[in-house]
Each structure stands twice: as structure tokens, then as C-alpha cells.
Design goal:
With 165 residues, this protein is mainly β. Helices cover 11% and strands 45% of the residues. It has helices at 63-66, 143-146, 149-158, and strands at 9-16, 19-24, 28-33, 47-53, 56-62, 79-87, 90-98, 100-107, 112-113, 127-133, 136-141. Strand 1 and strand 2 form a beta hairpin. The chain is globular and about 45 Å long.
């Protein structure tokens, strides 16, 4: 279960379908336009492939597939959110493919409810809270819970070394 949110924090918001998600900006390294993604034949089906980020192969996960959403074609607004996550005491870098990235927002604990326990559309162990902003709900994800250490090890093993240009 995720740790409750007890202090104000900044979040980057992104869209998957009709849902608005947020992750702690401290976990985000950068946002990339969707460019050349190299497919990896033995990778899990939710792994789109790898991208070259300054000579480093970063695994890219299709967040739609990871969350069981129907696939859509990539668009000009599709973005890769490059995140640095702490998994089992180790830092790992992974990219998450989003339909679009919106803005950085600040939410304080009064604007955040705990994840619903019943009738939840999303696995509650992946959700840190439900943010409220005006009349809009924002699903705040616990990205370190989204990926197991086994998945990350598999993704990193499948990510080939990328030669420096």
C-alpha cells in the first residue's frame, strides 16, 4: 500500500485516454517527443522498445498496455516521460509513453483523497491518491509500485547498449 501524501508537492500531469494522471515531479528526469523507438524482440508486450537518450538505452513502457487500456495510434502529442524510480533500493531509469503531457501542478494534502477501496477502476496499490482541482479528478500514481523489480531487471536486460553518436 502506498504511503499517504502528507505535504504539498508538485506533480506532472499526463493523459491516457480520458483519464488525467499525475506523478511526483521529483521522479521525472525529462519529457521527450516520441521519436525513434527501437523494438526489442524478447521484451514484454507492454514494453514499446528503447530510445537513445544521450547514448543511453532507456526502456520505454506503453502505459496504456501496462494499465490494460485499449491501444491507440501515436500522435503528435504523444510523449515519453523519462522517470528515475527507486526499486528495491536501486535507482532505475524508465520511460513511460503517454498520450500527452499537460503541466506541472501543485497539490496540497487537502486536495488529495486516499484511493477508493471499492469499485476502483485502477488497482489501488498503484494509486497514491486522487487529486482534486476545480471539478477535475487526477489519479496520482505511485510509479515505483507500477513496476516490479523483476520487470525492471527484464527491461534493462532487454535494453541493448546504444553506441554514442
Amino acid at each position: 500500500m502506498s504511503t499517504p501524501i502528507t505535504s504539498s508537492a508538485q506533480y506532472i500531469t499526463f493523459q491516457l485516454g480520458n483519464e488525467l494522471f499525475a506523478i511526483d515531479v521529483a521522479q521525472v528526469r525529462e519529457i521527450l517527443e516520441l521519436s525513434q523507438v527501437t523494438r526489442v524482440p524478447t521484451a514484454p508486450d507492454y514494453m514499446r522498445g528503447v530510445v537513445n537518450v544521450r547514448g543511453r538505452a532507456i526502456p520505454v513502457v506503453d502505459l496504456r498496455k501496462k494499465f490494460g487500456l485499449p491501444p491507440v495510434a501515436d500522435t503528435l502529442t504523444s510523449r515519453v516521460v523519462v522517470m528515475e524510480l527507486e526499486l528495491d533500493g536501486e535507482s532505475t531509469v524508465v520511460g513511460g509513453l503517454a498520450d500527452s503531457v499537460h503541466e506541472v501542478i501543485e497539490l496540497d494534502p487537502a486536495q488529495i483523497n486516499p484511493p477508493p477501496r471499492l469499485a476502483a477502476r485502477w488497482r489501488t496499490d498503484l494509486v497514491r491518491g486522487m487529486g482534486r482541482r476545480s471539478d477535475q479528478f487526477i489519479i496520482i500514481l505511485d510509479m515505483s509500485a507500477v513496476f516490479s523489480s523483476e520487470e525492471v531487471a527484464l527491461m534493462n536486460a532487454d535494453a541493448p547498449a546504444v553506441a554514442h553518436a
